[in-house]
Amino acid sequence: DAGVIQSPRHEVTEMGQEVTLRCKPISGHDYLFWYRQTMMRGLELLIYFNNNVPIDDSGMPEDRFSAKMPNASFSTLKIQPSEPRDSAVYFCASKGGLLDTGELFFGEGSRLTVL
Amino acid sequence: RKEVEQDPGPFNVPEGATVAFNCTYSNSASQSFFWYRQDCRKEPKLLMSVYSSGNEDGRFTAQLNRASQYISLLIRDSKLSDSATYLCVVKQPLVFGKGTRLSVIA
Q1: 3-state secondary structure at position B80
Q2: Are A96 and A102 within 8 A, CB to CB?
Q3: Which residues, including other chains, have CB under 8 Å from residue B67's CB and lie 6 or more apart?
Q4: Which of A103, A105, A111 to mutate against chain B (most B CBs within 10 Å)?
Q5: What is the C-alpha to C-alpha distance for residues A114 and A18, in angstroms, rounded to an integer?
Q6: In Å, how far is A9's CA from the nearest CA of chain B?
Q7: Residue A109: which of B31, B43, B45 has the nearest Cβ?
């Protein structure tokens, strides 16, 4: 079975450019999460959706970040304009069942470098 | 106090050793506790949930101490393949620790 699929796996861009990260959750999972991981801050939850509806976006760092989930099988995280401090690994994860029980399934991550 | 704190390590231990990590949390209302494992440049994967009574899965034992607000992970008979970073989660999906790095040495 396919797991969580993220693209691109790697992206190098210049400051000021728009970055779009994509995620396809596991079919049937009704929760989708976007995380950012850096050495300094660890793994931080940016936003999560339940049944395509954003539930908690308090982790989104600022207005330059936006996330959408137009349908149950696709989500995007957009950074516009990008800055060097946005360099990180961005993980998408999905799960079924209750929010606080059971496993989160992570994608392989999108490694972003902003020059 | 940070919501969750872990000793970053690294813990360097020989094969066959027993090693234990702790993870302290500040919110006494936290209800769901987990340990995830993350290999270098890979995604986190669930290692085990942590139940109030403590639980064991092969060489791995997880315990919860609500009074002192920490969870622990004990690994017995360490294998080279146990080398990874271990992340504690005290309120899924919101709060992950930064992880403790373990290196098992031959």
Answers
A1: helix
A2: yes
A3: none
A4: A103
A5: 10
A6: 11
A7: B43
pLDDT tens, residue by residue, B26-50: 987 877 899 999 999 999 999 999 9
Per-residue tokens: A41: 């801050």
Instruction: Say which residue the tokens 């997880």 belong to.
Output: B62
pLDDT tens per residue across span A26-63: 999 999 999 999 999 999 999 999 999 999 999 998 89
Q: Torsion angle, CA of A73/A77/A80/A85, rounded to 10 degrees?
A: -160
Fill in the DSSP letter of residue B11: E
d(CA B74, CA B47): 12
| Structure confidence by residue, pLDDT tens digits, A69-84 | 999 999 999 999 999 9
Q: Which two tokens stand for residue B74?
A: 């004990």
